[in-house]
């Protein structure tokens, strides 16, 4: 039986690992963090139905049930608002998902921490911590020798780079592939939904995702997360990096964002003001440039390691899960003797590159629009959204199934 080595224990790598266990294929995961606890952090993510379907494909029935138990309370779709809190359009959850009939076609709000815990269930003995990948060698016996920074090595048959946006495997396999900075930065934080904060918040900021479309430049997003004793609103503000020439943190960063939106509805400003200062993040947004197909072999990539994208479309984690599901299918076909390994990986890479970079390009388009000061284009979009809200047929034609992903 061939040995499959996964470098990186993020969402995509662990999803693939679960699928390999389900398929009774031999695998090991190597993670650079020293301990399991070092890597259980992060806020909520939104899984579209393409992510949920991919996850369902890879998980055993028992672990899938654990995932469903880990998800937060469902939200009421997504709303698009003006900066003075007037609704442009509300897209109900049922319209986003197409009235799904089975759980794997739904959409889910889940914390990264709980999702990772679910994805480690039953495979902890396959995960090795404190192993930072250094390089690989292709040996004459068709094995791959993997070197780690601690001086240790292992030999394997298949090497999967799931090692994130700064992937070392990508840099060796595809030295010309480039991850570049965009002109945008994102600032984010969270506000705890305690009794005091819920008294002044408009209901829809607490019950659904929202996107603010101001008349000129900027982008604002918020999402609610409610799970047992963890309740908060996550928000992000996106601007041209020229708007923030100096690196800031803490209260200074809060004040600067509030200053930028000084003419917006008070609730947006208070949301930022009341946010946990320690939660604030400053993130220059980067993206991968298009990658041409390469000669396939026993080394391949998935998720952010190959098609890292900006977060504005919310598809990064979903595409990593899709990659894991697709690669699992192709590895199963090879293991069953239906095709040789290189053919299987080549077929995976052809689909992965197409779907992954379609998401990269869409996300980059949204990022460009988010920081654009083109008032005419924004006015047209706002008018169209108002029309969609007023005419249900147009709303269905515009938004039905838009959030399902690749279907």
UniProtKB/TrEMBL annotation:
InterPro entries referenced in this protein's UniProt entry, alphabetically: FAD-bd, FAD/NAD-bd_sf
Domain named FAD-binding: residues: 4-339
Alphabetized UniProt keyword annotations: FAD, Flavoprotein, Monooxygenase, Oxidoreductase
Gene3D superfamilies attached to this UniProt entry: FAD/NAD(P)-binding domain
Domain of life the protein comes from: Bacteria
GO molecular function: monooxygenase activity
UniProt-listed Pfam families: FAD_binding_3
The protein, known as: FAD-dependent monooxygenase
Lineage, broadest ranks: Bacteria, Pseudomonadati, Bacteroidota, Chitinophagia, Chitinophagales
């Amino acid at each position: 039986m061939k040995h499959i080595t996964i470098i990186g224990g993020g969402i995509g790598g662990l999803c693939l690992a679960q699928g390999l266990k389900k398929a009774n294929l031999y695998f090991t995961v190597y993670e650079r963090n020293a301990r399991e606890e070092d890597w259980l952090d992060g806020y909520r993510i939104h899984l579209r139905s393409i992510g949920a379907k991919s996850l369902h494909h890879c998980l055993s029935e028992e672990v899938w049930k654990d995932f469903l138990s880990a998800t937060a309370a469902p939200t009421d779709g997504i709303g698009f608002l003006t900066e003075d809190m007037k609704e442009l359009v509300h897209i109900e959850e049922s319209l986003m998902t197409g009235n799904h009939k089975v759980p794997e076609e739904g959409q889910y709000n889940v914390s990264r921490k709980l999702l990772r815990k679910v994805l480690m269930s039953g495979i902890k003995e396959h995960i090795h911590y404190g192993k930072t990948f250094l390089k690989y060698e292709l040996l004459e016996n068709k094995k791959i020798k993997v070197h780690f920074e601690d001086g240790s090595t292992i030999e394997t048959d298949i090497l999967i780079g799931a090692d994130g946006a700064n992937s070392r495997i990508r840099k060796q396999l595809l030295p010309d592939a480039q991850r570049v900075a965009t002109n945008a930065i994102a600032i984010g934080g969270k506000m705890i939904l305690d009794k005091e904060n819920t008294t002044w918040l408009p209901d829809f900021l607490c019950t659904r995702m929202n996107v603010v479309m101001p008349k000129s430049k900027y982008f604002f997003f918020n999402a609610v997360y409610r799970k047992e004793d963890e309740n908060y609103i996550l928000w992000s503000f996106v601007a041209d990096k020229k708007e923030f020439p100096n690196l800031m943190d803490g209260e200074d960063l809060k004040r600067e964002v509030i200053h930028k939106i000084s003419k917006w509805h008070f609730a947006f400003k208070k949301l930022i003001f009341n946010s946990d200062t320690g939660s604030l993040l400053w993130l220059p947004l980067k993206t991968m440039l298009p990658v041409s197909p390469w000669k396939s072999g026993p080394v391949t990539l998935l998720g952010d390691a190959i098609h890292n994208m900006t977060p504005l479309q919310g598809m990064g984690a979903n595409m990593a899960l899709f990659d894991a599901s697709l690669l699992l299918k192709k590895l199963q076909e090879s293991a069953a003797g239906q095709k040789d390994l290189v053919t299987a990986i080549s077929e995976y890479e052809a689909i992965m590159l197409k779907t992954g970079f379609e998401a990269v390009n869409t996300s980059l388009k949204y990022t460009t629009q988010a920081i654009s000061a083109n008032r005419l284009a924004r006015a047209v979009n706002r008018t169209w959204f108002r029309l969609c809200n007023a005419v249900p047929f147009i709303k269905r034609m515009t938004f039905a199934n838009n959030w399902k992903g690749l279907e």
